[in-house]
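Title: Prediction job returns without error message
Component: structure pipeline
Severity: low
Priority: P3
Assignee: unassigned

Description:
Job completed but the reporter wants confirmation the result is attached to the right record. Sequence as submitted:
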Amino acid sequence: MTQPISTLEGNVATVKNIKLKELDVSRIGLGAMGMSTAYTGAGSDDAESIRTIHRALELGVTFLDTAEIYGPFTNEELLGRAIKGRRDQVVVGTKFGMVSHAGGGPGVLDSSPANIRTAVEGSLRRLGTDQIDLYYQHRVDPNTPIEDTVGALAELVAEGKIGHIGLSEAGVNTIRRAHAVHPVTAMQSEYSLWTRDPEPEILPLLRELGIGFVPYSPLGHGFLTGTIRSTQELAHDDWRKTNPRFTGENFQRNLRIADQVQAIAAEVGATPAQVALAWLLTKGDDIAPIPGTKRVARVEENIAADGIQLTAEQIDKLNNLTPATGGGVQDPVEKWDGRRLPAELATQAEEAHARAGTSITHRAHPRRDRPAVHRRAGSGRDPGGGRPARRSSAAASRAGSRSHPVPRP
């Protein structure tokens, strides 16, 4: 494994920190999803996963990402075990809204205030903490006005159960509406050299509102590392087996992208993964990617990307790579249990009906039935905001200067 410019020296941490609005995090975080679900080898070696988390902390990573749907629930439990006795060293981000606790179960969108109340208590318990630093709505729920969702989250901020509010894969209008209720700190979406969807509209809006950006899958689900040359290497239950970018002719065409990144990596004296992450870091000091891995060697490789300096010519080449074939945002949680509710379609539908003064409600199952449209009299907006939280001394110590309210995407 190539490690450029002596960025790893023993256990000395060299990864820098940035602010997602007022939330201080390491410039490169760690996504934990693949430790428990969706990818080849998930859940097979919790001890190695915990070693990987601990190594990341040694190298200065403070930003850890999970969600209740991962497992479901087992990933939060794993992370809770890993950070036991180290809670003050980390900023924990987790997500709600893809598990309906009212009987629908995993894979059913539910961001109703009642469901949020149940979800947050479960996440707090599994993570072994009294406060979640960053609590995201995992996907927009077309059945619940975003104002209601963020109003409930604002109450949790006021109570000290969460520190900051986040969104994931939300559209422009939803972000604006959410931010009007209570400041949003961060927006999480897929963003990488082969998924550039946030660039035209989302990133400019986040900068306008002062919201931080957290790219997930910054290595293209492993494709940009150049190590996947055939899907035969993937386990039968690996979600990438059915991902359009990993199948048939699309896979062969997309190998050109991996080869182009490899060529630049050779120039730099780095690995393709490090180049892909270094490119993301050139996009601003308000961006904190969360590459996922369950191996110590890979987390060391990823963190070393913070020491890569790309030339203007190399950045230009990376900006103009061959576009990927096989669709846009590629996300394993959208195919949970074989069911799919495309995030972009749910968001577009919700925003279209919001503009028309209507709301969307689903019948028995939001993934199997067509949505029914109902007129509502008011906007359903909740002024939100709340009062400053009264926290325990431990929670206050962790938060430091990260008082709320603070802006979120």
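Comment from assignee: result matches the submitted record. The chain has one domain: 14-343+386-399.
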